[in-house]
Amino acid sequence: METYIKSIMLVDDDLDDQKFFDEALKVVNKSIRLYAAKDGIDAIEQLNVVTPDIILLDLNMPRMNGVEFLQELKNSNRFREIPVVIYSSFLSTCDKVEVMALGAKQFVRKPIAFGETVHTIRQILESGKPEFMTPFLKQPENVMNLKC
After folding, report:
1. Which domains does the chain have, with CATH numbers?
2. Cβ–Cβ contacts within 10 Å for residue 29, how many?
3. Are 11 and 55 in contact (CB under 8 A)?
4. Considering the entire predicted model, what is its pTM?
5. Are 66 and 118 in contact (CB under 8 A)?
């Protein structure tokens, strides 16, 4: 699969999920570099060394959760333009509203099965060019339906 994305940062405290994602990514495209961070603090430390093309972000993590990390990222002149896709097992309506208001480009529910993970990665890579990512809150019909 041809993609402009050459590197992904996965921010997720579940090491099994990180390994599962890495294996699925290798099925999709072996040339894409994966940087894995165990929480927001680890991700910020890594961002001082690497700049991924896209960040996949879990919300529920210790030390610095996904929302806190997203706030830090979007307040940084250096990193605010990196597209962020929320990649979490549970996404409440209020979570969706909050993360999109903070600048996340998309959200996907973390798949359980390996085949679903491969499919999800392909979808993210296909829509991954920032100009093709339609922010959820810029779609008026979706904003009207969200209540916290």
Report:
1. 7-145 (3.40.50.2300)
2. 16
3. yes
4. 0.85
5. no
Please state, as a whole number, how many other Cβ atoms lie within 10 Å of the Cβ of residue 21.
23
pLDDT at 111: 87
CA angle, 140 as apex, 85 and 147 as ends, to 5°? Answer: 75
E-strand stretches of the chain: 7-11, 33-37, 54-57, 84-88, 106-109
Phi, psi of 120 (to 5 degrees): -65, -45
Instruction: State how far the Cα of 124 lies from the Cα of 121, in Å rounded to an integer.
Output: 5
* Interior/surface letters 85-117, b for 16+ CB within 10 angstroms, e for the rest: bbbbeebeeebbbbbbebbbbbbeebbeeeeeb
- Give the residue-averaged pLDDT of 89-115: 84
What tokens does 106 get?
Answer: 């998309």
d(CA 44, CA 138): 28
Long-range pairs for 41-48: beta carbons < 8 A, 24 or more residues apart: 42/11, 43/9, 43/11, 43/69, 44/69, 44/72, 44/73, 46/9, 47/9, 47/73, 47/78, 47/79
Tokens of 29: 């495209």
Residue 137 has pLDDT above 50, yes or no: no
